[in-house]
Write a structure and sequence with these properties.
It is built from 14 helices and twelve strands. The chain is an alpha/beta fold and 386 residues long. Helix 2 packs parallel to helix 3.
Length: 386
C-alpha cells in the first residue's frame, strides 16, 4: 500500500504544470523518449559542450503515465523534473502520453494517434533512448528466462510511436514521415531494437547463450573484448561500482552506410564504441538495411531506413556524457585503480572520437535542415504540454 501511495503522489507531482520550466523555446525541438535524470543529463552536457553542435535547442522529453506506476521509474522521473527546475533549464520540457492501447492495436491508428500527431507537429527530430528488454510478445515470441521486460509501459507506446512515424507494412497506415521525409530519427540501443520490432522484425533475446552457446558469466568474460557487449557480467562478479567503465568493442562499417557516405568515416575504419546490451536484432525488419556489424559479423550494430534517409538505429551508446569528460576517471575491473578515461581511450583509438562526434554533427545538421523549425511554429503546444 505504501508503494502504491508513493506512486500516486509522484504521479500527481509529475503531472503538475509547474513540473517543467517556462520560457520561450529557441531552436529545433528534439523529442526524446524516457527522459529520466541520466538521459536528460546526457543531452544537457553534450549540448553545453557543443558535442551536439546547435546554436539553440529545445528538448521535449515524453513518457507514458503508466511508467509512473513503477516506483523506481517514478523516482527517476521525479529526479529529472527536479534537476531541470533547480538548474533553470528553460529549454527542457516534458510531455505525458495518456491512455492505454492493447498489443494488437499498436500497429494501427489507436488511442495515442492524436497525441503522437501533436508531438510530431512540434518535432524537428526524435531520439529513442536505451533501456530494458522489450516484451517478446510484441514480436510474436515467448519470453526467454534471461529476458527482463521490466518496463512494459514504455515499450508499448514507443513501439507504436515508431510505427506511426515509419509505417511497417502491417496495414495501409500512412507514416507520419511521409510529410517530413528528411526528419532525423536516431534510435539508440533499445531504440534500435524497438525500431526493428515496430517494422516487423524480431530479436535475439540473449547474445551469449543464443549466439555463442555460453552459460556462465566466467565464459563471457573469457571472450575477447570485441565479443563482450555488456558490463553486467563484470558487475555480477563484484559489488555494484558506479565508477566501473562500460565495455568498449570495435565495429566495422559497411561501405554504403551513412557513416562512410555522409559522415566522412573511412570504409575500413573499426571505431571503438561503448556497449551495454544482451539482446540484438535477429530477423531484420522489412524497410531496414544493415550498415554496421560487430567485428565477428554476428551482431547488428547499425541499421538505416530504405525510404527515409535520416532514420538511423545504432546498438551502441554515443550519447553518454561520460565519453566526453576530460577529467573523468573510471576503473576497468572491480577493485582496479581509477585510471581509465573514456575520452582519452577514444582519442587513442582513431577514428573512435571522430566517429562519435560525426554522429552528433550529422544529427544536428539534419535537425537544422528541417524546413520551418517546429519549435517556432508550435511553441505554445510545446510550452503547454506538461
Amino acid at each position: 500500500m505504501k508503494n502504491i501511495l508513493l506512486a500516486v503522489i509522484l504521479l500527481a507531482t509529475l503531472s503538475m504544470p509547474g513540473a517543467a520550466s517556462g520560457g520561450t523555446p529557441d531552436g529545433p525541438v528534439i523529442v526524446m523518449t524516457h527522459p529520466t535524470l541520466s538521459q536528460v543529463k546526457n543531452i544537457v552536457e553534450m549540448y553545453e559542450k557543443d558535442v551536439i553542435p546547435l546554436p539553440g535547442l529545445v528538448l521535449l522529453g515524453i513518457y507514458h503515465e503508466d511508467e509512473l506506476l513503477n516506483e523506481e521509474e517514478a523516482e527517476a522521473y521525479q529526479e529529472a523534473f527536479a534537476f531541470v527546475r533547480e538548474s533553470g533549464l528553460d529549454w527542457v520540457r516534458f510531455r505525458k502520453i495518456s491512455g492505454r492501447v492493447e498489443g494488437k492495436d499498436l500497429f494501427r491508428e489507436n488511442a495515442w494517434t492524436s497525441q503522437f500527431k501533436e508531438i510530431f507537429a512540434s518535432a524537428d527530430g526524435f531520439l529513442f533512448t536505451g533501456g530494458m528488454d522489450i516484451p517478446p510478445a510484441l514480436y510474436g515470441h515467448k519470453t526467454a528466462l534471461l529476458t527482463e521486460p521490466t518496463t512494459p509501459a514504455r515499450h508499448l507506446y514507443e513501439v507504436s510511436l515508431l510505427f506511426h512515424l515509419l509505417g511497417g507494412g502491417r496495414s495501409s497506415f500512412t507514416p507520419f514521415l511521409t510529410a517530413k521525409p528528411n526528419l532525423p530519427v536516431l534510435a539508440v540501443c533499445l531504440g534500435l531494437q524497438s525500431l526493428n520490432v515496430a517494422l516487423g522484425g524480431t530479436l535475439i533475446q540473449d547474445i551469449p547463450s543464443e549466439l555463442y552457446g555460453l552459460a556462465t558469466v566466467e565464459e563471457v568474460l573469457a571472450l575477447d573484448p570485441d565479443r563482450i557487449h555488456s558490463g553486467v557480467y563484470l558487475e555480477k562478479l563484484g559489488a555494484n561500482d558506479p565508477d566501473l567503465a562500460p565495455p568498449f568493442h570495435r565495429i566495422f562499417l559497411l561501405p554504403d552506410s551513412a557513416f562512410v557516405r555522409r559522415m566522412g568515416i573511412a570504409a575500413d575504419a573499426t571505431p571503438q564504441v561503448a556497449t551495454s546490451h544482451h539482446q540484438a536484432i535477429d530477423k531484420l525488419a522489412s524497410g531496414l538495411r544493415v550498415t554496421a556489424l560487430s567485428l565477428d559479423g554476428r551482431v547488428v550494430e547499425a541499421v538505416e531506413h530504405l525510404r527515409f534517409a535520416n532514420v538511423l538505429g545504432i546498438q551502441f551508446h554515443p550519447e553518454r556524457f561520460s565519453l566526453y569528460r576530460k577529467a573523468l576517471r573510471q576503473r576497468l575491473q572491480p577493485g582496479a585503480p581509477l585510471d581509465f578515461n573514456p575520452l582519452a581511450f577514444l582519442k587513442a583509438n582513431p577514428p573512435s572520437y571522430e566517429f562519435h562526434k560525426a554522429i552528433w554533427k550529422w544529427f544536428a545538421e539534419a535537425l537544422l535542415a528541417e524546413p520551418g523549425l517546429g519549435a517556432r511554429q508550435t511553441a505554445d503546444g510545446v510550452r503547454k504540454s506538461n
